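anyone else get weird line breaks when pasting these?? whatever heres mine. first is seq + tokens for prot A
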Amino acid sequence: MVKEPPAIYGIIGYPLEHSLSPRMHNAAFKALKVNSVYKLFPLANEQVFTVFMEHLKDEGNPIFGLNVTVPYKEKVLAHIDTVDPFALKAGAVNTLVITHQRKIFGFNTDGPGFLSHWHELGFHLKDKRIAILGAGGTTRAILSVLCLINDRPASIKLYNRTYEKAEALVKELGQKMDASIVEVVNTPEDLDVELADALINTTPVGLKGETQLPVDPNLFHADMLVYDVIYNPAETPLLKAAKAKGAQTSNGLGMLYYQGVLSFTNWAGMDIDAKYKKIMRKALEEGVPA
């Protein structure tokens, strides 16, 4: 009897060596006894990315699902046949479903994953003052979901090193939703962190052990949540400094988990049992260096 080759799933982006997604999804495949494997596909530049996306259309290609991370969450839209309404509004995709007919469907599970994690953390967003660092694909998803929910924040201040990029992002989102609560600021000081109920870092600062903080740590206070979407390392210098000031802190491992469950659900075409979700979460938590 000839054994069927496994269906391939994975993540595209660059760099990828820090990613824990393979642990989570391969643990689920193993527990479900599914003949599938999740791999890393580091695509170092746009040319390699474009060729990879073109080959996804090839008949016989064994890839049926992908996650998308930096820097391709926005660029991937040009290669997708059908885009989910939320992903279309956000202008960013982090999950691809590829059919046997090689049609590509795009979803954004970052936004809902973010909300699910914050619900778990017990943080109520209604009428809160939020400060955000960064203006990439993850920021798009977070901003979009914060602007679209009924119990939305009172205000969002957004700082990005390149002001024009943040300004263009908010202008673009404002054409698809009510983004009037979002203000782009010129400097990190203008975020008014000392008055904020939450600070969200979506930049890669801290991913490679940088010690320079994007905001003044003396502004952190006990009545705020400091949230870093980075999950590896588990505690970035930003989170460490915030914890020292008594702030509630969290890395993005929970967001990764919840968006991953939603990605897996999209690939499977059905919800998965709670026991398998627990296996995915445990695999993630065990993968983060202490």
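and prot B, same format (seq, then tokens)
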Amino acid sequence: MAARFEYTQAEEIRDTFARHGVRYLFIGDTGAVLLGFPDAGAAAEVFLELTEADGAAAVEALRDLGFALTDEQAAEIQRGKDFVQLKNGPFDLDLIFAPDGIETFDDAWKRHVEVEGFPVCHPDDIIASKAATGRVKDRESLPRLKAFRDYWVTQKR
């Protein structure tokens, strides 16, 4: 069984990506957890802006975090492959350049929320992305996530 996502991983990502100028958003279960949702996923999940400069900066940041990237993985990240799953570092990390259910990074960025210095996708984007994947585990979590979103909106606004 894979290790569960931990808050300290988000701190490491935030701090290292900031030093390298990587533009990103926490998404999926990671984003939901940072918003206060209690269901943690196994891997940290980040949505990266799809630019050549950001891809190159992300590769350097990931190496700085301790990921032993292969040349192939580095090339996939630099070109913005839709989904890159990393298991060769201090924790599991999913890099997402084209999440299902979200048109563009800029659209998600306009709606994002800051939580303790963490850039996080808005709950509506997390829900849209999970709904669009069609995976059973995502469909099963949608009712709980929607209820959480409704609670979150009343508490935060």
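btw re prot B: The chain has one domain: 7-150. The mean pLDDT is 91.
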